[in-house]
From TrEMBL:
<dbReference type="InterPro" id="IPR001613">
    <property type="entry name" value="Flavin_amine_oxidase"/>
</dbReference>
<feature type="domain" description="Amine oxidase">
    <location>
        <begin position="52"/>
        <end position="491"/>
    </location>
</feature>
<dbReference type="InterPro" id="IPR006311">
    <property type="entry name" value="TAT_signal"/>
</dbReference>
<dbReference type="Pfam" id="PF01593">
    <property type="entry name" value="Amino_oxidase"/>
</dbReference>
<protein>
    <submittedName>
        <fullName>Monoamine oxidase</fullName>
    </submittedName>
</protein>
<keyword id="KW-0560">Oxidoreductase</keyword>
<dbReference type="InterPro" id="IPR050703">
    <property type="entry name" value="Flavin_MAO"/>
</dbReference>
<dbReference type="InterPro" id="IPR036188">
    <property type="entry name" value="FAD/NAD-bd_sf"/>
</dbReference>
<comment type="similarity">
    <text>Belongs to the flavin monoamine oxidase family.</text>
</comment>
<dbReference type="InterPro" id="IPR002937">
    <property type="entry name" value="Amino_oxidase"/>
</dbReference>
Amino acid sequence: MPIDLSRRHLLGGAALTLGALATEGLTAEANAATLQGALPASVDTVVIGGGLSGLVAARDVARAGRSVLVVEARDRVGGRLLNHQLTSGGTIEAGGAFIGPTQDHVAALAAELGVATFPEYVDGKNVYVSKLLGRQTYTGTVPPDPTILLDALLLLQTLNSWAAQLDVAAPWAHPRAAEWDATTLAAYIRTHSLNAAGITNLIRCWTQPGFGADPDQLSLLFVLHYIACSGNETTPGTFDRNADTAHGAQERRFVGGSQLLPLRLASQLGDHVALDAAVSQVDQLDSHAVVHTARGRVTCRRVIVAAPPPLVLDIVWNPGLPTARRQLLEQMRMGRLMKCDAVYPTPFWREAGLSGMGISDSGAVRAAFDNCVPSTGHGILLAFVGGATWAQYGTLSVDARRQAVLEGFARMFGKQALSPIDYTEHDWTHERWTRGAPVAVMGLGTLSTVGSSIRTPHGRVHWAGTETSTYWTGYMDGAVRAGQRAAAEVLT
Ligand SMILES: Cc1cc2nc3c(=O)[nH]c(=O)nc-3n(C[C@H](O)[C@H](O)[C@H](O)COP(=O)(O)OP(=O)(O)OC[C@H]3O[C@@H](n4cnc5c(N)ncnc54)[C@H](O)[C@@H]3O)c2cc1C
């Protein structure tokens, strides 16, 4: 039977009255609204995964008058979006947080759901810490390090000009796709730079937070595609838009935290979301599919998969996934990333004329951001600890890592950074249903050989999730776009 989830119903009172509640209240309310009893025997579409992408897909299917059920493995929605309530007050994000220009799809969703944004603090100078040159302040994208400046400018120019040649929907079709996919970003830098070690180390400040990986783990073609995706249909992607704060992907944040988006979507979908319903098997038969979950089986006409790529391989597929699809998933690995936040009585760096943005060529804090929230006067510094830096510091005891992170902040912003009033961290490699962050990355020879299967339906099964998006793949915007595209496939 079709479910009554008209646009009017979806935009009804629940979302509006929930607006003023904090995340914890909203989470409890969203969870309480989800399906509590037995799963329905059959629906039109089952969506596997209640992250942003799956929830958007489900909403679009429901709006078209089709019955839908989101089956989510965790006891919460949001996947890689997770708000964290600081004991010192205020809400920060343990997962995805920033939004920027050309991310129109997530921006439109946020506006519709009544989730406002605020600009990331950018006044003042950024800080660059180098073992050779010590501490310097700067503005712009590239730090003023004469040992890498020329290499950096040439590299960024090359990456931008090659990325501009790619079709974001078919990067494998470029005449040089195989060549670019046969080399890593690190190998390219090694043979095209004066100070290869210096520039490789510097660009880690971008790859470790952005991919949870290092230049030697990333295919050049994959990186070029990621840059090409950092735009929209009318504005080509560029490195700067991906990496920058002002005018870039880190330009704004959500008031109340990004998890408000999935929580409000889940509140609207109500009992069309089932939590604690990990999917273990999908059978496709002539006339229908059967999805096996931890809460029982559901028969459906179509399935949308919105789980992170490596998690899809944990599901038993009858019939099995096509070879290209399986190989693609086997070669897509989640990055290694954690976020560490330290809270101070005030944002003391601002008084010193600093933006709170910093990069370093060593230590636990390779990239730092001002992570203050408007609702408190506290200062909050955020460190991304990813890739090889995660391997070094993510495996230490919490106390040892906390000390290393605070020392990293202190090298950038001064000794006051050593005395926070609160400290918190979240390691995504420990998350059973994500297994790493922020995105699944591709190494050598994947995108050019099996990449073209990324959106190809498998019978009744359609693919969503941010990794399947053509623009802003790996980001919230990509998750929304992919959910919308998969829903449109099912509906047609
Ligand atoms: C630390 C970090 C920082 C980030 N920073 C940013 C940022 O600043 N800006 C930005 O735009 N993006 C950022 N991202 C990326 C962004 O969060 C993701 O692109 C987006 O949230 C992905 O949404 P999704 O729905 O595609 O996948 P997910 O959020 O991963 O959702 C997938 C869902 O599937 C569920 N699932 C998995 N397996 C099964 C199964 N077998 N059965 C049922 N359910 C299953 C999972 O539990 C999960 O809820 C960041 C991510 C992290 C982790």
